[in-house]
Task: inverse folding
């Protein structure tokens, strides 16, 4: 079968090769939410290796282009939902839709193109090539998550998020480490099909099976000893108002939206509520200065509890010097703001325009208001009466592995994420976002409470399992106890991406051993 395909491929014109690469990249996104067909990542990556090994061109540009077109297919179908945000205000941001739909994927594809080029340049085959390919993929995935503030969306390791036994390995290796192992496993079917040796086919299949069983066995063990308890005397109310983004900041609807939020919050409960959690930018006012609305908020707070909500913080230093932050406020029953967390990892062009001096004045951030948001000082641990210490996150901040809690100081016991996926409508974006948040819970061994404006709000335990949720585009509340953190610290929470770099060193040694062995065999053949 592989030989027939290779024969057909030899005479294929370059545009057909690139079209196949684009299609393979696009099919790979079916491995992520909301489909979660993990085997499509195996097919996609094995197909990419097949393209590389059967390319008749030795031109570096051709091989580079194969990776770039694969990336374009992968990121266009995986990130199309970003363009939906521009449709909220077509008159102002409609012109950005082509840039969001194709421009951003075109840029991100440059994180895959070097992988194919360097793999081809290594002139290796078989297991040695796969070690190198996997290592390169993981390195450039890590770079994608860090360069120019980073966008670590749909990392390959996330294909396991719908499979609880497999995703528990995030607690060991983190998202980047699991991606490295997953890419290696995904490439083994290609090696099995490419070889004509039955012995080699059995060998490659055995490696894949052993690795998959090992990941699943660890997951089974971790879940068997899972700490399923809850913290006593705590009942959180998560409020999902389901306000459409086009109406959220409409002046005609501001008061109506606010009253609706208060109405949902004060609705009857099955058991006494101790604390209330609202989503990102939930309040349509400046809480620090609007005493009237702050007292209205305080009126729905339990007498011994507190309310945490997303909101905008603003300081006007002069008529032209105004600073704004996307923040989380802690409000007590006496209408006092006892703590504030300012979002530190902002969305480029969404919350601020990077390198603003290089862009014309009509280029503005997508969120409401003309003032760019300022960045906070970084992750913090907050303490609120009646609650264990927690790490607050605002929306986008939850997608960055290893960056959801402060490095020093007291360890948080849970994570509160105020978010707003109303921007992305009924697309795959909110489902992928939830899956990524579940990955953070597993990595850190901490329960993750996600409160969204239009969904998906969820109570996630320290093992990434959704204990309660509200679907997309529905209004309502979740009254929930607070799950306990994992009984022991996860390896990833202790060492972070140092685990990933250790795996890279291990793979490098395996590649180097295979490469030197290949060189020695080649010399013997020449003699």
Result:
């Amino acid at each position: 079968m592989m030989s027939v395909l290779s024969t057909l491929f030899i005479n294929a014109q370059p545009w057909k090769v690139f079209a196949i690469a684009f299609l393979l990249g696009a099919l790979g996104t079916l491995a992520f939410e909301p489909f979660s067909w993990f085997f499509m990542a195996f097919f996609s990556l094995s197909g990419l290796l097949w393209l590389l090994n059967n390319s008749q061109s030795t031109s570096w540009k051709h091989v580079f282009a194969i990776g770039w077109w694969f990336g374009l297919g992968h990121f266009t179908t995986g990130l199309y939902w970003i363009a939906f945000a521009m449709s909220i205000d077509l008159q102002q941001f409609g012109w950005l839709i082509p840039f969001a739909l194709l421009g951003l994927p075109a840029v991100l594809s440059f994180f895959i193109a070097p992988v194919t080029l360097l793999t081809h340049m290594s002139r290796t085959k078989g297991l040695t090539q796969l070690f190198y390919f996997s290592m390169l993929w993981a390195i450039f995935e890590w770079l994608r998550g860090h360069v120019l503030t980073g966008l670590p969306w749909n990392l390959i390791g996330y294909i396991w998020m719908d499979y609880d036994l497999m995703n528990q390995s995030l607690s060991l290796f983190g998202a980047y480490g699991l991606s490295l192992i997953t890419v290696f496993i995904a490439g083994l079917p290609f090696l099995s099909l490419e070889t004509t040796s039955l012995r080699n086919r059995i060998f490659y299949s055995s490696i894949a099976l052993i690795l998959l069983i090992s990941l699943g066995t660890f997951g089974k063990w971790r879940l068997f000893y899972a700490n399923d308890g809850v913290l006593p005397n705590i009942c959180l109310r998560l409020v999902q108002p389901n306000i459409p983004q086009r109406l959220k900041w409409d002046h005609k609807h501001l008061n109506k939206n606010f009253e609706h939020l208060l109405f949902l919050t004060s609705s009857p409960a099955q058991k006494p509520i101790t604390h209330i959690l609202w989503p990102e930018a939930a309040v349509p006012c400046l809480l620090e200065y609007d005493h009237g609305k702050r007292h209205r908020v305080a009126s729905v707070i339990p007498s011994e509890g507190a309310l945490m909500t997303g909101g905008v913080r603003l300081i006007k230093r002069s008529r032209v010097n105004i600073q704004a932050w996307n923040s989380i406020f802690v409000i007590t029953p006496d209408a006092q703001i006892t703590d504030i967390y300012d979002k530190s990892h902002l969305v480029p062009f969404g919350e601020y325009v990077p390198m603003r001096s290089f862009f014309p004045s009509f280029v503005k951030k997508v969120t409401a208001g003309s003032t760019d948001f300022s960045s906070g000082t970084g992750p913090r641990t907050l303490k609120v009466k009646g609650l264990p210490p927690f790490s607050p996150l605002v929306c986008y901040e939850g997608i960055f592995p290893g960056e959801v809690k402060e490095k020093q100081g007291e360890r948080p016991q849970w994570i509160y994420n105020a978010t707003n996926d109303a921007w992305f409508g009924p697309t795959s974006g909110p489902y992928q976002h939830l899956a990524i948040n579940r990955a953070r819970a597993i990595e850190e061994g901490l329960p993750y409470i996600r409160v969204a404006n239009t969904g998906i709000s969820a109570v996630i335990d320290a093992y990434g399992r959704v204990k309660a949720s509200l679907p997309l585009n529905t209004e309502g509340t979740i009254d929930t106890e607070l799950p306990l953190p994992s009984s022991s610290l996860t390896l990833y929470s202790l060492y972070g991406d140092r685990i990933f770099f250790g795996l890279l060193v291990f793979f490098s040694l395996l590649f180097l051993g295979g490469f030197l062995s290949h060189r020695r065999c080649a010399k013997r053949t020449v003699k």
In short: Residues 236-494 form a domain with the Nitrilase/N-carbamoyl-D-aminoacid amidohydrolase fold (CATH 3.60.110.10). The longest strand covers residues 306-316. The chain has two domains: 2-225+497-526, 236-494.
